[in-house]
C-alpha cells in the first residue's frame, strides 16, 4: 500500500504553518504569545517533543528552586520504549 501525503500537509508548507502560529495574538479573545517548540508530521512525535520540552522546563525550575528531583512520571517507560 502506498500512502501519499496531502499537498496541504507536505514539508514544504512547514514554514507557512510556523509563521502563522507565531502571528497569533489571541485565541477566543484571550491574549497569548505562542512558542513553537516542535513541528512534526505526526501527532505522536509532536506529543513526545512536548513532553521532553516540559520536562526540561520543570528541571530548570527545580534547579532554580534547589529542589530535590524525586518526581517520576508514568511517561518514563513509554518514552524509553518509543525511541
Automatic annotation (TrEMBL):
Keywords in alphabetical order: tRNA processing
GO BP annotations, alphabetical order: tRNA 5'-leader removal
One Pfam family here: RNase_P_Rpp14
InterPro entries found in the cross-reference section: Pop5/Rpp14/Rnp2-like (IPR002759), Rnp2-like_sf (IPR038085)
GO cellular component: ribonuclease P complex
Record-stated family: Belongs to the eukaryotic/archaeal RNase P protein component 2 family.
Name this protein carries in UniProt: Uncharacterized protein
